[in-house]
């Protein structure tokens, strides 16, 4: 299960550059062959439900990428122990250099190869940013969708190359 968890967390972290990568052409500089370290106040495993839950001050780090949240849940299939999804909840912050994604929840759907960030999601790359009601990144397609909702609209600022304040 360890390798599958590493890949799932790596895919969750890759979305940090998704919406901005399409605009700026910046490389990810990321490799998922590095070890992952997860620290939390508590770990709960429930094999009958296919869950591993890290609780309290969670910090998951792999190479240059760190994920912070109050709760990180890995949901796996009981038979093959393959990752179904990874959920980061409560004060989610994903950091890779100058790139920072925030929200209240981030969910990586393994089979669909997508990440959905909700709860006032925002992705910053230095002075550039995009925010909306929901940010979805399709990892296999290098495609992202930022949705507004209700009275909230999509908001983004992209500075010309070499002109960032």
TrEMBL record:
Do the record's keywords include Transport? Answer: yes
Q: Which residues form the Organic solvent tolerance-like N-terminal domain?
A: 37-142
| Annotated signal sequence range | 1-22
NCBIfam families registered for this protein in UniProt:
outer_YhbN_LptA
Its ancestry begins with: Bacteria, Pseudomonadati, Thermodesulfobacteriota, Desulfuromonadia, Desulfuromonadales
Name assigned to this protein: Organic solvent tolerance-like N-terminal domain-containing protein
Q: Read off the InterPro entries from this record.
A: LPS_export_LptA (IPR052037), LptA (IPR014340), OstA-like_N (IPR005653)
Superkingdom:
Bacteria
Q: Write down the species.
A: Desulfuromonas versatilis
């Amino acid at each position: 299960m360890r390798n599958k968890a590493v890949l799932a967390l790596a895919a969750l972290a890759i979305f940090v550059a998704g919406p901005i990568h399409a605009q700026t052409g910046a490389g990810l500089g990321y490799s998922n062959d590095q070890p992952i370290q997860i620290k939390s106040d508590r770990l709960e495993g429930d094999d009958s439900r296919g869950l591993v839950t890290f609780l309290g001050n969670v910090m998951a780090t792999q190479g240059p990428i760190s994920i912070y949240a109050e709760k990180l849940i890995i949901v796996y299939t009981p038979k093959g122990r393959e990752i179904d999804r990874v959920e980061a909840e409560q004060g989610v912050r994903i950091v890779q250099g100058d790139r920072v994604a925030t929200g209240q929840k981030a969910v990586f759907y393994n089979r669909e190869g997508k990440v959905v960030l909700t709860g006032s999601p925002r992705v910053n790359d230095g002075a550039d940013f995009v925010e909306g009601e929901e940010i979805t990144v399709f990892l296999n397609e290098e495609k992202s969708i930022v949705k507004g909702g209700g009275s909230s609209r999509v908001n983004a600022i992209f500075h010309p190359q070499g002109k960032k304040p």
